[in-house]
Every structure is written in structure tokens, then in C-alpha cells.
Amino acid sequence: MSLPTFTLTTTAEDVATVFADQIKGKNVLITGTSIGGIGFEAARVLAKHANLVIITGYNSERLRLSEEAIKKELPAANIRQLVLDLSSLAMVRKAAAEVNAYPEPLHVLINNAACGDAEYHLTVDGLEKQMATDYIGPFLFTKLLAPKLLAARTETYTPRVVNVSSGAHAFITAFELTEGAVAHSSPEQVPFARYGQTKSANILFAGELSKRSGGKINGYSLHPGLIATNINTKESNKAHMISIGILTPEGLPNTEKYEWKTMAQGAATTVAAAFDTRFDACPGAYLVDSIEANDKIGPIARDPNNAAALWTVTEHILGEAFSFD
């Protein structure tokens, strides 16, 4: 069968329809699925075809609303809620233990959740909150769920881990890969630079995961596009978004300077990374507009030495090694 070439205007529905047979029977976990975000849209679309979609969030009420919204449209959808606060390592461990107790294997893990607060905060573990939520927590979560993912592997299927990154990663010019810098950052650091570092970490992690697993798990990262989600329109982030021109002085999407996507278009690349069979041939790939775009990876996130160093530093921060046994 000839597969279509996806573009900027491709929607998550479009991708899911093409790969409906691949999604059928699969169990997928998506972090960060509050209504108004691309994680919710990906969950909604995948629920039409998948055997099980596990939705997560740190707010149980928002989780309930997300499930209700999906079930209202798709009464037969198999949705399971999971409370997950990625800013707390203890909560990550608790959530992972819950998933590992499920009877089903896990075919796809989508690390979509991100910290929407650009201000400097430390978590209960003493980690910088944005890095903890966007990268360190997902690294630990993925590590703890690796046995569950490996249990889904067959001769014809390789489980996938999808990290939602951002094109913003390419704008950073420095990323100090020491334990202190990764764990704590600095209150004086520009928020956008810190965000770019977390998104670089997502890309480095996906590539190194594919490499270290030796073909047992395929990792992918992606830029979803510029979308008016509940993160970049959040009141506390508006001033910064206006200062760099993403939003107009009135706080609206700057459509003259940037090409924006709808929520449906923004979730497309996530679904493609999770199920497009063409990516079996390029584990570790970075995707833009639902196609492979490794040429758009910035210098810091492209360097394999950085990937290896970040992996080692993260293991030191967590005090444990990532194993694929």
C-alpha cells in the first residue's frame, strides 16, 4: 500500500486513519492529557482505534473531565485514568508501580506533559521544576516502565517511546551537562533558555534510548508546531511570549510572523511518531509535520556525546541506572 506524505496541515485524525490497523489492539499511555492540549487530542483520536488509552495528569478532576469528554464522543473507548505528578520522583514511582501492575503490556509511551510555568521553582526533590517535569521525571517514568514496554515486543513489533519536544530547542546556544546544572539550573537563567534546554534533553533522550536499547525500544522526538495551547497562552507566560514575538502585544497568536497549527494539526506528529510504520527504519528520529526532520535538530541536541553525557548525568541525579534487561 502506498502511504501518503503528511504535511503541516495533516491532522491527528488523518494519521490515525492511515494507521488504524497498527493502532488496533495496542495499549498507549499519554502523559499530560488535560482538555485544551495536544495530549488530549492525541488521546481522543487514538481512543477510536486502540485497545486501551491511559491518560495521565497531576489533577484528578481534570483527568475525570478528559475521560468524560472522550467517552461522550466514544462511549465504547477503553480509557484508564492515572494520576501522575512528574515534578515529584516519589509520585512518578507510585504511578509507574500502578502501571506495572496492569495485566496488559504497554506498546507506546508518549511523554507529552510539560511544565507550563516559566518561573524558577524547585520541586520537593530539590530539582528545577521545568527540567524535572519535562525531562527528569519522564526519564525516570520511562525507565520504570521499560519492562512493561519490553513485554510488548514481538518479532514483528518494536515498542515506542515518543518525547514531545519543540523547535525552540534549536535556539539555545549552551547546555551545561553537569549534575548541578541539569538538576538545579539557575534562578538568573532566562526562562526561554531553560525551556529550550529541557526540549533539547527530550531529543537527546530519544536518540540515546534507541541506541542503548539495541533495537528493543524505539525512541522518537518531535516538534508539534506552534499551537495556541493552554501552556503558551497561560497568563504567567504571556509577557515572555509577547517579548519574543510569538504573541502580539495584545496577547494573541502572532499569525503575521508565524504559521500556527490547530489542535488537530498539532497532535498529528505525535500520532505519527507513535504508529507510522515508516519510522521503524529510523529509530531515534526527530519529526516535524509528521515526517523525519533530523536536519532541523540544533547543534546541541544533535551531538551524540551530549546524549551520552546527559544520560549518565541523569542516572547520577536519580541514583540508579536505566536497564533494558
Automatic annotation (TrEMBL):
Keywords: Oxidoreductase. InterPro entries: NAD(P)-bd_dom_sf, SDR_fam. It comes from the Eukaryota. GO terms for molecular function: oxidoreductase activity. Pfam families: adh_short. Gene3D superfamilies: NAD(P)-binding Rossmann-like Domain. Transmembrane segments: none annotated. Belongs to the short-chain dehydrogenases/reductases (SDR) family. PANTHER family: RETINOL DEHYDROGENASE, RETINOL DEHYDROGENASE 11. This is Uncharacterized protein. It comes from Mycena metata.
